[in-house]
Recover the amino acids of this structure.
């Protein structure tokens, strides 16, 4: 969607260089990890890593998001899944491209299959598929996140009831979050996929809250924490 309908522009193209804006808030929290009962969680709660037999090379992944609609006398709750793809030689810069708002990647490996502007209806409100076994070797990191479209009043995850996101591969849940740990944020990353030296992709749950508008979130979602 373009600026004519009031939604922030997150263009599906390389973004210009932009400095750190200071718009982020250091809100961190653990995700719920999928996998076998003997899975070991390594590292801090802010950036956990699931170690189990399921943490093999990642293939095709599904991300689903749902939330409750606003009450009849309030503006619509409009949340968006966003994926940022980063080149192997600049994994912590700005994304080479973004997928969002009923779009797909230039090579068709990342697609937003379902989009909602209100959260109304049954089942998942937004769905995204990522096919890592087809992604060019040019890319070494992919970040997936959720951003809340902002109106006149600032809206956070704590303002949107029953928000949940899942990441799964072949019906095996990799992680799930209700954003309660980043309730004061307006956007959040939920996980990152990193290409290993072997060429295989691995998944790392990564819940990181931002206090940023959609445009700023798209530019800074891949920055390393200060």
């Amino acid at each position: 969607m373009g600026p004519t309908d009031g939604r922030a522009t997150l263009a599906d193209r390389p973004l210009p260089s932009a400095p750190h804006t200071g718009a982020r808030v250091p809100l961190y929290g653990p995700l719920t990890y999928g996998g076998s009962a003997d899975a070991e969680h390594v590292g801090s709660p802010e950036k956990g890593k699931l170690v189990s037999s399921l943490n093999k090379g990642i293939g095709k992944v599904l991300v689903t998001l749902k939330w409750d609609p606003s009450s009849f006398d309030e503006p619509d709750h409009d949340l968006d899944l966003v994926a940022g793809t980063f080149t192997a030689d600049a994994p912590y810069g700005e994304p080479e491209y973004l997928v969002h708002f009923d779009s797909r990647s230039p090579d068709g490996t990342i697609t937003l299959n379902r989009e909602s502007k209100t959260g109304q209806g049954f089942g998942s409100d937004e769905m995204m598929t990522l096919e890592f076994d087809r992604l060019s070797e040019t890319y070494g990191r992919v970040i997936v996140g959720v951003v809340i479209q902002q109106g006149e009043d600032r809206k956070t995850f704590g303002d949107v009831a029953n928000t949940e996101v899942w990441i799964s591969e072949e019906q095996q849940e990799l992680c799930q979050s209700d954003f309660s740990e980043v309730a004061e944020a307006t956007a959040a990353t939920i996980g990152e996929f990193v290409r290993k030296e072997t060429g295989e992709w691995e998944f790392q749950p990564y819940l990181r809250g931002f206090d940023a508008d959609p445009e700023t979130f798209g530019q800074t979602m891949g920055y390393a924490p200060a």
